[in-house]
Write a structure and sequence with these properties.
The protein is an alpha/beta fold. It has two domains: 6-70, Transferase, Pyrimidine Nucleoside Phosphorylase, Chain C (Transferase, Pyrimidine Nucleoside Phosphorylase, Chain A, domain 3); 77-318, Pyrimidine Nucleoside Phosphorylase, Chain A, domain 2 (3-Layer(aba) Sandwich), CATH 3.40.1030. Helices cover 45% and strands 12% of the residues. The protein has helices spanning 6-14, 25-36, 42-55, 59-70, 99-108, 128-135, 143-153, 160-163, 165-171, 174-177, 182-189, 207-215, 270-277, 284-302, 306-318; strands at 84-88, 113-117, 155-159, 197-202, 221-226, 240-246, 249-255. It is globular, with a radius of gyration of 20 Å.
């Protein structure tokens, strides 16, 4: 396709209620490539991203954007040989990132997990990257270091600034816009390690359904759901629709709610998390979140029923190595 002046893409998206339209796949692919490569004026990039937010991206646009992103991911990331990809992009405000214990239990059972994420300065959220070093997993400062962490611990955390700095730059633009852009959605869908399984947590209503439609076009098997605060953590205070996509087909499974309602965490710190891990502190929400999230992950990985997955998750949680940090050599 012959590249159009970038202003034509802005015009297509912003021509008003009657004149605006979605971009074709080729147009969206070309446009996102130029945004990522920073080959257009910053004013054009800002207008493009905010118009997309107002109109909401179509499935075709998202697929084109993801293709442009994945073509720029370093090929060395496939050497991580991850089985499960999990994006950690939302950050927590109300609760701690208890799903990280679910990830730790998977890693200790032999599942290789690639965690990736980003943080937004000034958001006042508690991100996975804030918790992981205290839980025993250092943050990889290079792809080579991530390989070492995978070899030692079956899990690694890679900042998006290393995995795809072009996309990380777009996420950081929230400081200028005051709003998130499609970059956050793209990061969740990215699967930079090309793992055969991927988990995506989203926040807004209907985003889970749209992600599932996008996932149907990928080779990977995927799970997407509206997690606590938008992170990949099942909140059992309410029913959760789990969208499992395999071989282009999506199945919805409803994870049931559990009795009880959790108050906002008073102490957002890893000391609370470690106290719960060691069994020194009882925490109803934490235990429910760990077991529910782990159950959902096991349903994806092993095609288990809810009851079978929950039974296995409960056993893994009860038999955890309380005297050791959650993440460590395996």
């Amino acid at each position: 396709m012959r590249s159009l002046p970038f202003s034509e893409y802005i015009k297509a998206l912003g021509k008003g209620q009657k004149g605006a339209r979605h971009l074709t796949f080729d147009e969206a692919y070309d446009a996102m490539g130029r945004v990522l490569d920073n080959s257009i004026a910053p004013e054009q990039a800002g207008a493009f991203l905010m118009l997309l937010r107002m109109q909401e991206e179509s499935v075709e646009e998202l697929l084109a954007f993801i293709r442009a992103c994945r073509e720029r991911v370093p090929s060395e990331l496939t050497a991580l040989n991850a089985q499960l990809d999990i994006g950690c992009y939302a950050g927590k405000r109300r609760q701690l990132p208890w799903y990280l214990f679910s990830v730790a239990l998977l890693a200790s059972s032999g599942v290789k997990v690639c965690l990736h994420g980003a943080s937004e300065p000034g958001s006042q959220r508690f991100y996975a990257s804030h918790a992981l070093p205290d839980l025993g997993l250092p943050l990889a400062e290079s792809i080579e270091q991530a390989k070492h962490h995978q070899a030692a611990c079956n899990v690694s955390y890679l900042d998006l600034g290393i995995a795809l700095p072009e996309l990380d730059r777009l996420i950081k633009l929230r400081e200028l816009f005051g709003l998130r852009s499609c970059a956050n959605t793209l990061a969740r869908l990215l699967n930079p390690s090309h793992a055969p399984f991927a988990v995506q947590g989203v926040y807004h209503v209907h985003l889970d359904e749209r992600h599932a439609l996008v996932n149907e076009q990928f080779k990977q098997s995927s799970l997407v759901f509206r997690g606590d605060g938008g992170d990949p953590e099942v909140n059992t205070e309410r029913e959760t629709d789990l969208y499992f996509t395999q071989a282009g087909q999506t199945q919805k499974v409803v994870y049931p709610a559990s009795p009880g309602w959790a108050m906002k965490e008073r102490d957002i710190s890893t000391q609370t998390m470690l106290s719960v891990w060691r069994g020194e502190q009882s925490h109803h929400y934490a235990e429910e979140a760990v077991i529910a999230s782990l159950s959902a992950y096991l349903m994806l990985l092993h095609n288990l029923t809810h009851d079978a997955a929950k039974s296995q998750a409960v056993a893994m949680w009860e038999n955890r190595e309380k005297a050791q940090l959650p993440f460590g050599p395996v």
